[in-house]
Amino acid sequence: MFRLRDDLAIVNTVDFFTPIVDDPYTFGQIAAANALSDVYAMGGEPTTALNIVGFPRGKLDLEILTDIIRGGSERVRAAGAVVIGGHSIIDEELKYGMAVTGVIHPDRVVRNIGVQPGDALVLTKPLGTGIITTGLKRRKASPASVRAAVASMVRLNDTASALMRTFPVHACSDVTGFGLLGHAFEMASGSGVTIVLEAKALPLLPGVRRLAQQGCLTGGCRRNRDYLRNKTFIDPKIPADLLEVALDPQTSGGLLIALPAERADAFVEDLHAKGIEATRRVGYATAAEVVSVRLV
């Protein structure tokens, strides 16, 4: 955050990655939605975006790049922001993303720390995008699973962010590369609490558990497991495939929001009424224990 005046600050974020779906336009949409998400997680409103492109000269038709940028621009317009330029380089592998600037009141920034004992944890999108896109690459994911994952990744977190600003939210993180367990760990350790996630309450994309059972896991999932091995408690009764989903790196994932338990049901109901149907109350915070996160 950079304060411009007492009542106005800007927030900046950047993200880019290689294609995770086959259609260039859809890839552009997903990459833009993912880049915009950090601004929404802070409670900000996106204003401008810059394209970031790595393109393999002579290997791909330039129409592919045109479609990617067109998809990204569509999501930025949907966010009420404007693409004002960008930069491209020649790269061996195609990459695309955005640097996004948003505005926010400096006293109303929502951070990923500040969770309080007794808070409820609410998640606004289903889990499993990394596993499903890996399954797509291996030709194991069903069309229904891919459609659901794409719809989730393309969807902006704008509605959840706007509603969040009307509730007494204590902390928020968008769920991306560290997976649900990793981002919950960041929130809990930075707040001095333990977050308890309830496995049976987690919203899941269709078919994701079957794909996890078939081994459609990303390298990021393995890295998340190794990093969190001594920092989390996993109930031995949790099925292995469901644990993999909780570790799965997400692209354009949902918001993980901590707020007073007595307001959580109303928050979930309001999001459902606004069409964010995957939203679930997925856990709660307690006073700090030996580990920062428990999956039970």
User: Would you identify the CATH H-level superfamily of the largest domain?
Assistant: PurM-like C-terminal domain
How much helical structure, as a percent, in the residues?
25-40%
| SS content category | alpha+beta
Averaging pLDDT over every residue, what do you get?
A: 97
Overall spatial form: globular
Order of strands across the main sheet: 7-10-6-11-8-12-9
User: What count of domains describes the coordinates?
Assistant: 2
SSE string, helices as H and strands as E: EEHEHEEEHHHEHEHHEHEHEE
Could you give the count of β-strands? 12
| Beta-strand share of residues | 25-35%
Question: Major β-sheet, in short?
Answer: 7 strands, mixed
Question: Which stretches of 5+ consecutive residues score pLDDT under 50?
Answer: none
Distance between the first and last residues' Cα: 35 Å
CATH topology of the largest domain: Phosphoribosyl-aminoimidazole Synthetase, Chain A, domain 2
Rg over C-alpha atoms, rounded to the nearest angstrom: 19 Å
Tally the helices.
10
Assembly type: single chain
Characterize the structure shown.
Helices cover 38% and strands 26% of the residues. With 296 residues, it is an alpha+beta fold. It folds into two domains: 2-104, PurM-like, N-terminal domain (60s Ribosomal Protein L30, Chain: A); 119-295, Phosphoribosyl-aminoimidazole Synthetase, Chain A, domain 2, CATH 3.90.650. It has a seven-stranded mixed sheet with strand order 7-10-6-11-8-12-9, sandwiched between helices. Strands 1-2-5-3-4 form a five-stranded mixed sheet, covered by helices on one side. α3 (129-137) crosses α4. It starts with a strand and ends with a strand. The model has no long low-confidence stretch (mean pLDDT 97).
